[in-house]
Amino acid sequence: MEDYKNKIKTPLLATDGIIKLFDKDEIFQGIVLIERKNPPLGFAIPGGFVDVGEKVEDALKREMKEEVTLDVQIEKLLGVYSDPKRDERFHCVSCTYICKAYGTPKAADDAKNLQIYKLEDIPFDKLAFDHAKILKEFLQEEANLF
Amino acid sequence: MEDYKNKIKTPLLATDGIIKLFDKDEIFQGIVLIERKNPPLGFAIPGGFVDVGEKVEDALKREMKEEVTLDVQIEKLLGVYSDPKRDERFHCVSCTYICKAYGTPKAADDAKNLQIYKLEDIPFDKLAFDHAKILKEFLQEEANLF
């Protein structure tokens, strides 16, 4: 059985979070983008790998805490992004969630810096991976709510 | 870089499809459940592992063709199911989609047998993995459409 298990090769599994940041009066501040410390450089929504033995939602909450020091509430699954070319390093599938958080994020771990962007100011030309595509789908999703 | 890649361990990635089967007059026939040939035994929605280099949606279409000989159209992502205990063999995350298909399915590959179930006849007590939970969420999702 161990042999059988070791023969199965599937893509790496990651999770990313589009964090909608609110102040204590429930006023929307923007979404949190990090500036990456490691290649590929550029801006990105925060995220990371799912550990074996960990639920994807728990991995997301852990990564958001590690990278931007926020406790997030998950609102919904936006999509599963799995184009083999979305990450030039290896085939990595992202389960991407929309989340909500309060407070003041700080860049940590893989994040060199972070910035809060209003939806109309998202720097689409500076985004790493397929995060421009993901954020366009997010804007579409948010637009559908109204 | 190769070393770095090999150190990353994430759960196995699979994809499963809830296939809504229609006849040529667009009359709903039921959903397709397979009887598993390999342990864990029982009924299940068809599915399988995602290959490295393959999009999850392509893996789903390939698996549906291999296991039940149907060409499916993907309607929507139902959810990502990642409880480490959902599969007793290993930690395996399923991206589960709702699909539509026409024609006559045949059991092949991992499927010993298959059966078409009307929504009110789904054998919840005979389902492997967490497929009872998944199919309950599917019924909820379908109910929300009306």
UniProtKB/TrEMBL annotation, chains A, B:
It comes from the Bacteria. InterPro entries: NUDIX_hydrolase-like_dom_sf, NUDIX_hydrolase_CS, NUDIX_hydrolase_dom. PROSITE patterns: NUDIX, NUDIX_BOX. Keywords: Hydrolase. One of its GO terms (molecular function) is hydrolase activity. Residues 11-139 form the Nudix hydrolase domain. The keyword Hydrolase applies. This is ADP-ribose pyrophosphatase YjhB, Nudix family. It comes from Malaciobacter molluscorum LMG 25693.
